[in-house]
């Protein structure tokens, strides 16, 4: 019998991978975590800027809704979360309007979508049945699908979006105090050093899982590294799993992943560009007769970055500019200065502030284009038309050798940290049960 180097290999050191590795290590299994980047976190990327005492989240930032697994993980790590607070305002030609105005109409449209017998795309739904709703409602639904879900309305399932918006994800949010990174560091620190290895800057190229063990081939600096394990948890973003084996950046599976074809056809990783603008002071609080002092989210459907948010409840000089879906797709790959220009133009438009005043206050800009990142190729998943079963299908293990986790492999709250953490924990628990059953045989 071949003795494997490790009980389990975890591919990817994002939220799903690190949570899984911590759970496996706590159960006494030996674990190798293999990560292509030179840092932990994947799509969680807490940046600490020089001489600025607050974390800057270039990836995930909020805890949406109840998120019980995330909140419990934070509690166990001794970390706190702070509820967001503040108003949502939208810029129209006639000025700013507050949230609540017309939102019942969005809810009515979503109830209608949820009751459809047959799934269809958001774009189709809006064009075929839109005449029953006000044009502002249709524009708002489209903006929310593109912004909040990073979705292309031509591809996204209207039933899935209706279900998601009907759940707890839109009902209030929090942020981990100090950012998300301390949670990931906590998981990494809890790995048993005598039996675990955390390999950064190590890009997995092939996973051979047809035999008695799983063999993993990876590239580290210019060297090839191979290790064998009893089982593996694959937490690669679905965009990587969807690549053809010959495409650059693809991971070769042997046997191939044909059993996952239906699952992978049902999810799409949407693009996002996030620009965090660091100012000298939160100058917007003084604008518009101080009406913006308690603004958390600000929108304008016609801006290149249609959503801005402040750091409330912290009154600190950060404004985040956000574009997702087709808008982000169009801008992805543009140079940094062009992206910043669009972000600043959006701030100017949404806040109705003079350019000179805004630039006087600007200190620096932090930009992240997630579509152009080779190890994520997008921000987070949404379900394609007919894709409701996809996350559960993706999460199914193959032959008690390959387990799958990640934000696209969790049926609840797809596209979130909660989905990633819950799926990582579930995959680890599946392996622990299988290993115990095997040992007791
Ligand atoms: C801009 C942005 C904002 C977001 N905002 C929120 C938010 O506010 N709230 C929320 O809940 N969620 C948010 N999300 C989503 C959240 O970040 C993700 O759902 C979650 O972090 C995904 O975790 P994961 O472990 O599934 O995947 P990842 O974090 O992508 O982990 C997978 C890991 O695999 C690695 N990898 C890729 N290829 C290879 C390879 N060949 N070999 C080895 N390793 C490889 C990657 O580098 C990565 O570290 C946001 C995401 C983005 C991008």
In short:
The protein contains 14 helices and 22 strands.
Verbal overview:
47% of the residues are buried. Strands 1, 2, 10, 11, 12, 13, 14 and 22 form an 8-stranded mixed sheet that branches. The longest helix is centred in the C-terminal third of the chain and has 23 residues, at 417-439. This protein is an alpha/beta fold and 441 residues long. Helix content is 32%, strand content 25%. It is built from 14 helices and 22 strands. Helix 1 runs parallel beside helix 14 and helix 3 packs across helix 6 (158-166). It has 2 domains: 6-45 and 180-267 and 385-439, FAD/NAD(P)-binding domain (3-Layer(bba) Sandwich); 85-171 and 272-378, Polyamine Oxidase, Chain A, domain 2. The protein binds flavin-adenine dinucleotide. Residues 11-17, 34-37, 42-44, 59-62, 64, 203-204, 235-237, 240, 251, 272, 274, 370, 375-376, 379-380, 406-407, 415-418, 420 line the site of flavin-adenine dinucleotide.
